[in-house]
Amino acid sequence: MKVPTRFTLSSRSLQTKNNWYRVVKKIISILFLLILVQPAAVFSQSAPEAQTPPQESGTNPSGTESAPSSEEQIVSTVKKLIGFIRYKKNDKAIALVDVKQFSAQLLKSSSKISEADRKEFEEAISEFIIHRSFPIAHKYFDKIDINYEKPVIKGDNATLASSIIWSGSERITFSWILGKSGNDWYVTDFLSEGKYASETNRVKSVEPSIKKNGIKQTIALIKKEAKN
To answer: Which of 48, 153, 176, 182 could disulfide-link 160, Cβ–Cβ 3.0 to 4.6 Å?
Structure first.
């Protein structure tokens, strides 16, 4: 994609801008992406928030006792996730991702998998997010700015539409998918260009790997990628 401009750019400068746009687009489009058939995997996206670490759960900087609305909680969850990634608090960041739900979506067509293997798969996905996805997100977080729309809530599920403005004019849109558990909201999936990350990964990566390698080898591949 060409980068819009009103002045002449050197071929090298234009190539740099084009390459960076593709990097940003790739980060957004492959959030939660696993590549198991051909080992090489990245998933995650982040963006700069305030220049201070995110507030921990249970804090109330305003000093008031009023409970935040569901809309505020949803946006706060995503902002905290991004903030924790930014400050390399990966243990706190992963706590805001419903890895169990995401893993269940990845395995929803694999009904014959034992509970023990499902649990190990979930743990492998968590390792992958922490050791591969979050570091990649941290690498690019300071180069993209994120905007949020008003969340759309349906029962215990919500969609938070977001966007990134590139070069002052290009708009990249995507959505965070969240689910409510108890009184809290957690990120469960990601929607980009009309495709859910869980569905894309299930069809293109997880199912082919399970069919070819079996569930145990698939788990081993995920763990191997998490360490690379």
So the answer is: 176
More confident site: 87 or 103:
103
In this predicted structure, the answer to whether residue 184 has a pLDDT above a threshold of 90 is yes
SS3 147: strand
- 20-74 confidence digits (pLDDT tens): 556 555 555 444 555 544 333 333 333 334 445 565 554 454 455 678 999 999 9
- Return the closest-CA partner of residue 121 out of 28, 18, 207: 207
3 state DSSP class of 180: strand
Host H or E run for residue 188: strand 184-192
- Rounded Cα distance between 119 and 85, Å, is 25
Question: How far is the C-alpha of 161 from the C-alpha of 48, rounded, in Å?
Answer: 17
**DSSP per residue over 25-87, as a string?**
HHHHHTTT---TTTT-----------SSPPPPTT--TT---PPPPHHHHHHHHHHHHHHHHHT
The DSSP bridge pattern shows strands 170-181 and 195-196 to be unpaired
pLDDT of residue 124: 95
Residues in the chain: 228
Torsion of CA 185, 49, 1, 189, to 10 degrees: -10
